[in-house]
Design goal:
The complex is a heterotrimer. In chain A, about 30% of the residues lie in helices and about 35% in strands. By secondary structure, chain A is of the alpha+beta class. Chain A has a five-stranded mixed sheet with strand order 1-4-5-3-2, covered by helices on one side. In chain A, α1 packs parallel to α2. The longest helix of chain A has 15 residues. Chain B contains twelve helices and seven strands. Chain C folds into three domains: about 190 residues, Glutaconate Coenzyme A-transferase (3-Layer(aba) Sandwich); about 130 residues, no CATH class; about 160 residues, 3-Layer(aba) Sandwich (Glutaconate Coenzyme A-transferase). The radius of gyration of chain C is 24 Å and the shape is globular. The chains are: A alpha+beta, B alpha/beta, C alpha/beta. The interface between A and C is medium-sized, with 15 and 15 residues. Chain A: This is Malonate decarboxylase acyl carrier protein. Chain A: Keywords: Cytoplasm, Phosphoprotein. Chain A: Its main location: cytoplasm.
């Protein structure tokens, strides 16, 4: 297993009222992502725990694209990954952000 | 032809444990206990270089069905095969004990729903898992004794195998779909121990003919049969009344009698169609291939074959 | 004086040599190996019928039992090398030379046998290419074929899995060769005559029915959200743009997802009746919902598919059905239909390089080509027009003058990462590495880049027709290659410029919300759903059941 944390900044903080949400499942080729609204309003912190080794640069690229697309400022994002491919990771991140943007 | 309104219904088999809870309970009524944000996770999986899950694959809490308060626990069959382990087991046992303790108080719930989806005990935490299974059985019996029915809903990918099969059988009522499977030893285990002539685990039609929802409900191993969409599970859950016989010596003796009779009648059969011939069903070889509606009609005609659980 | 009838005399000599082993045309199973030892001579070209589906498996097994001292150095000329017996022939020294098209499960064994010098490889062909050579320079001396039933005169019913048989028999019987058929049953009267008895020399009732592989069954339960997204991109970015009515689909999950989205997403896009009405296609179970929803007018099949026979018999307005009521497939004719009569081929691939060449070869496997190179090739002999064909041709030419001919749409679908996080996009194809290793003068490329018109990944669609030079093609490919090393090395400015020109279109450019891509969009989510759609007529094999 590999663990690392990616710190970055968004242009704006993520809208919505939800304090946290969980998306995905730790199944083979899949991952779960916990979004929590905490910390600096523009900070994005992504804590990754992954079963695949040697892909930190790919994670960084995926997170960079995600932050550029969604601007999830104020999110603390924890990930448990069981070998998901980058497109699945991006999809789950987008799903999680969409859920957090919900009004209640 | 599948009507479009059915085509787009979320399926129980495919859905995650959380989606099943969402679909089963009244909208927005679920209050989770020890949710993901509490980070109560398996302390053991890291030793095996395996990623944990925030809820350890067991989601517990309370909610409403048709406005009635219920307790609910759902296993995530896709995480580690939905296995019983230290944390997941403790969450389930804790929920059941709280239900038993709260019976007759303002915190009382009308029913406990167990959305089981499990291959049995988690091998990486085998001892804790085995204990969790026995404690769960004990706690289920206490809840039933306190007058609260415990209902198992079976229709997930992993089925209800190993200790999960035993736990299921201890419930007061079992709701199952066509894809649902209940057994103790899994098909691969039987084949490994007894040979392929005894049970060919790769013959999927055989596996479902023996362990699947239709056979289980016809034999009395399940009480309600539903179509595989979440809405059908909810409809069945809505109408559950506490009409299970009390957990008494008399009930157990009746159940023992039923099982003895079943063994005598069907003990020499090698496959379910042979059982259906003896039972006098009209299309013994074609039960698996009936449409859902035709099978449900057949069930109505046949009636439930048992009186105890 | 020249003897112009040597072949005829040789044929008569061989047939006469087995009179003691046969009763009329019928040979008993236990005599088959002896019969083969007398009928087949060392050095013969032999076709042991086997393709990607049906197998003359009993005859294959019997042929492995001949005495290699007596029968050796055979030249095997057949479309599929699929059974372990096929490889055994080379291991045992019965066969030496090989010309084939497809190997599937034996792809690893062929690579090893080649390495050990057990196989002398002629060439890896496409199906119609090999069939063409049956009539030019690879004509079989002896063909061992499979049929459902035969009468005592040798009339054969090959049934839904007719496939290669008429072509093999045509080439063999009319060039003084000998045809031996294994049949599931010898009957008084065949339900229909697929092969006339005067083209068949001997028949044997095999101890078990010939084997058929369910090759085209894709379980809807295994279709992923990524494949659904790719299918949405294809439907909106290609089907809706070009409106191809006549087409062929590959056998992968990405195209299965398209089939399952036709009645849902395709309908929302208003495409019913406008696209995908006529097909050259195997009997894909995943097409059942679209057929039942009225999308499909006609399908011609290369072969059959296990479990689909009753369904197809009951849908004779759609499929080609004999007067007996069962499917007639024909690989040669259907391949030809795919080559000349289709406006689009769309299929999955494993590897794509920066010029758009694609291959399914890996360094230790030689899987062959099957039909994909013909389906996925622009036929320069085509002269009839269609709107889709002309639109593609004009995009490629950049104008629409009277000499601008059309182009077949050849669409490659690839998830940017495959099994085990192996990138689908590479700087150099594994097949080129393999060709170097084995000293092959031509690398086994499935579809050449100059035939490919579009590449679809989960990141978007790249329209190579609109690319004007090799650098644009390279950046268009990098631009949809996701987070693979090839994708990460894109020139972001050039990729953005291509996107502005519509060469690259992302889901958001097409108005697709990626969060819509979920399994509830599929018209069927399980094999059981397909059975329900088919009114219980589809009878899937056990390995696809979960009921």
């Amino acid at each position: 297993m590999e663990k690392f944390t990616i710190y970055t900044q968004a242009k704006s903080s993520l809208g919505g009222k939800r304090s946290d949400t969980l998306t995905g499942v730790v199944a083979s080729g899949n991952l779960e992502i916990l979004f929590e609204r905490k910390g600096e309003p523009l900070a994005v912190i992504v804590e990754v725990m992954t079963a695949s080794h040697g892909y930190q640069h790919v994670w960084e690229a995926v997170i960079k694209d995600f932050v550029a697309r969604v601007s999830p400022g104020g999110m603390y994002i924890s990930i448990h990954d069981n070998g998901a491919r980058p497109d699945t990771v991006l999809l789950r991140l987008m799903q999680g952000a969409r859920l957090m943007e919900a009004r209640s | 032809m599948i009507p479009e309104n059915v085509m787009n219904q979320p399926s129980w088999y495919e859905s995650s444990a959380r989606a099943r809870i969402e679909g089963l309970l009244d909208a927005g009524s679920f209050k989770e206990i020890l949710g993901p944000q509490d980070h109560v996770m398996s302390p053991h999986l890291a030793l095996f270089d395996l990623p944990p899950a925030f809820d350890d694959g067991m989601i517990i809490g309370r909610g409403l069905i048709d406005g009635r308060p219920v307790a609910i626990a759902a296993q995530e069959g896709q995480f580690m095969g939905g296995t019983f382990a230290e944390v997941s087991g403790a969450k389930l046992v804790g929920l059941l004990r709280a239900v038993a303790r709260n019976a007759g108080t303002p915190q009382e719930v009308s029913t406990v729903f167990l959305l089981l989806d499990t291959g049995g005990v988690r091998l990486q935490e085998a001892n804790a898992g085995e204990m969790a299974v026995s404690e769960t059985i004990h706690a289920i019996l206490d809840v039933r004794h306190a007058g609260v029915p415990v209902v198992a809903l079976i229709g997930g990918r992993a089925g209800a195998f190993g200790g999960g099969g035993l736990v299921t059988a201890c419930c007061s009522h079992i709701i199952i779909s066509e894809q649902g499977r209940i057994s103790v030893s899994g098909p691969e285990v039987i084949e490994t121990n007894k040979g392929v002539e005894e049970f060919d685990s790769r013959d999927r039609a055989l596996v479902w003919r023996v362990t699947g929802g239709r056979s289980r409900v016809l034999l009395g191993g399940a009480d309600s049969y539903v179509k595989g969409d979440i809405g059908s599970f909810r409809k069945a859950a809505e109408v559950i009344n506490n009409n299970a016989p009390p957990l008494s010596l008399e009930t157990l003796e009746r159940e023992q009698g039923r099982l003895e009779h079943r063994l005598k009648a069907y003990g020499n059969c090698h496959d379910t169609p042979e059982i259906w011939v003896i039972a006098g069903l009209s299309t013994p070889a074609g039960i698996a291939d009936l449409t859902e509606d035709d099978f449900i009609d057949l069930l109505v005609k046949e009636g439930v074959r048992h009186d105890a659980r | 004086m020249t003897d112009w009838t040597k072949q005829k005399a040789e044929r008569a000599r061989r047939v006469a040599a087995v009179t003691s082993l046969v009763s009329g045309k019928v040979v008993e199973p236990e005599n088959v190996t002896s019969l083969l030892e007398r009928i087949i001579c060392s050095g013969d070209r032999v076709c042991l019928e086997g393709d990607n589906q049906k197998q003359a498996d009993f005859l294959a097994e019997s042929l492995t039992r001949v005495d290699p001292a007596q029968v050796h150095d055979l030249h095997i000329v057949q479309s599929g090398l699929v059974l372990s017996e096929h490889i055994d022939l080379f291991r045992l020294g019965i066969a030496r030379k090989l010309d084939f098209s497809y190997s599937g499960p034996q792809s690893g064994a062929i690579a090893r046998a080649l390495d050990q010098g057990k196989i002398e490889l002629g060439a890896i062909h496409t199906y119609i290419e090999l069939f063409a050579r049956y009539f030019v320079d690879l004509t079989p001396h002896v063909s061992l074929i499979a049929a459902v039933s035969a009468d005592r005169n040798g009339n054969l019913y090959t049934g839904p899995n007719t496939e290669d048989t008429p072509t093999i028999v045509e080439a063999t019987a009319y060039k003084n060769g000998i045809v031996i058929a294994q049949v599931n049953k010898i009957v008084d009267e065949v339900p229909r005559t697929d092969i006339p008895g005067d083209q068949v020399d001997f028949i044997v009732e095999a101890p078990r029915p010939f084997y058929v592989e369910p090759l085209f069954t894709r379980d809807p339960a295994a279709v992923t959200e990524t494949q659904i997204l790719m299918a949405m991109i294809a439907l909106k970015g290609i089907y809706a743009e070009y409106r191809p009515r006549r087409l062929n689909h590959g056998i992968g999950f990405a195209t299965a997802a398209i089939e399952l989205l036709l009645p849902t997403y395709g309908k929302q896009l208003g495409l019913q009746g406008e696209v995908a009405t006529h097909w050259a296609l195997n009997p894909h179970p995943t097409l059942i919902p679209a057929i039942e929803s009225g999308w499909v007018q006609q399908i011609h099949c290369f072969g059959s598919e296990v479990g689909m026979d009753h369904y197809m018999s009951a849908r004779s307005d759609v499929y080609f059905i004999g007067h007996d009521g069962t499917l007639r497939s024909n690989r040669l004719l259907c391949q030809n239909a795919g080559l000349y009569a289709c406006d689009m081929f769309i299929g999955s691939t494993l590897q794509i390089d920066l010029a758009g060449n694609s291959s399914t070869v890996t360094p230790d496997r030689i899987a062959g080509f099957g039909g994909a190179p013909n389906m996925g090739a622009d036929a320069h002999g085509r002269r009839h027009i269609s709107d889709a064909w002309l639109k593609a041709g004009r995009e490629a030419a950049g104008n629409n003058g009277p000499l601008v001919r059309g182009r077949k749409l050849v669409v490659q679908m690839a998830e940017t990462f495959g099994e085990g996080m192996k990138p689908a996009f590479v700087e150099e194809l594994d097949s080129i590495v393999l060709a170097r290793k084995l000293g092959m003068p031509l690398a086994p490329v499935m579809i050449f880049g100059d035939d490919v018109t579009h590449i679809v990944t989960e990141e978007g669609v790249a329209n190579l027709l609109l690319c004007r030079n090799a650098d644009e093609i390279e950046q268009a490919i990098r631009g949809v290659a996701g987070y693979t090393p090839v994708g990460l090395a894109r020139d972001r400015v050039k990729v953005e410029a291509l996107r502005q020109r519509g060469v690259i279109r992302r889901p958001e450019d097409l108005g697709i919300d990626i969060l819509q891509a979920n399994r509830n969009l599929l018209a069927a989510r399980s094999v059981r759903d397909l059975v329900t759609w088919s009114d219980g007529l589809y009878a899937p094999p056990s390995k696809f059941r979960n009921w």
